[in-house]
Structures are given as structure tokens and as C-alpha cells.
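[recover] target loaded
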């Protein structure tokens, strides 16, 4: 879960996603470079199959 100036909303949505999917959901801020294009309050969900890879 990425956010730009919306930490509370991102954490709330991450909690809902975890409850429904039991997946680990990390909350991280968007960079200023992306934030300038999308604006404050942006939330973005990224779904990736990491297979045998970890981060």
C-alpha cells in the first residue's frame, strides 16, 4: 500500500486488505516525484507474486 500524504487512510485500507486476504500488507509513502503527478491523498495498491523471492 503506497500513499502520498494519507497515512491514516493507507493504514486503514491495509488493515481491511489484510483482514480479507490474510496477506502481509506493507504501508509505504510514495516518492515526491510520483506525488507531484498524482497529488495529496493518493492511495495505490500493488499486488505482486514474489514466488520464491523475498524482499
Amino acid at each position: 500500500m503506497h500513499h502520498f500524504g494519507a497515512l491514516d487512510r493507507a493504514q486503514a485500507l491495509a488493515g481491511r486488505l489484510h483482514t480479507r486476504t490474510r496477506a502481509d500488507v506493507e504501508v509505504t509513502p510514495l516518492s515526491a516525484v510520483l506525488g507531484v503527478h498524482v497529488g495529496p491523498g493518493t492511495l495505490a495498491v500493488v499486488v505482486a507474486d514474489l514466488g520464491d523471492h523475498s524482499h
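[recover] notes: The chain has a mean pLDDT of 91.
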